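A sample follows:
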Amino acid sequence: MYDNDLKAYRYVCSHCFNTLDKCECSQYPETLIQIDKRMVPVVKELNRKYYRTEGCCEGHVGKFDKMYIFFVKKYKFKVPYPDGFTGNGAYIMAEIKGSSENAKKRNKRLLLNRLYDWACKLD
C-alpha cells in the first residue's frame, strides 16, 4: 500500500481529501491542505467516517521519529488503538522504533499499515 519512493507531502482538497486531478467536489476547492503522502489514505478514511482530523505526521526517520494524528475533538473510539499506538481520543501516536535507519523504516511501514487497518475498522 505504501510506496517508499513518494515525495514527502501531497496537497489535497480539504473537503474530499483527493488531489486536484481526482477531486470529487463540484467546484475547485477553496483551500488545499498539506498532508504527508503516506498519511493521506488514513486521514481520508477517518474523515470519510466523520472522525475529523486537525493535523498529522507520518514521522520522518532520523529527524522526527513519531507518527501522530490529532483530531478536532475528543472521540470515543470503539476499536482499540493498534499495537504500538497510544492516544486519548483527541490524538493517536506511535514512536517509530528501530536499532538502525532501515529497521525504523520497516517499523514505520508496519505502523502505517496498522493505522490504516484500524481506520478501516472504525464505524
Summary: The chain is about 25% helix and 25% strand. Residues 59 and 67 are 5 Å apart (CA to CA). Residues 38-121 form one domain. Confidence is low (pLDDT under 50) at residues 1-6.
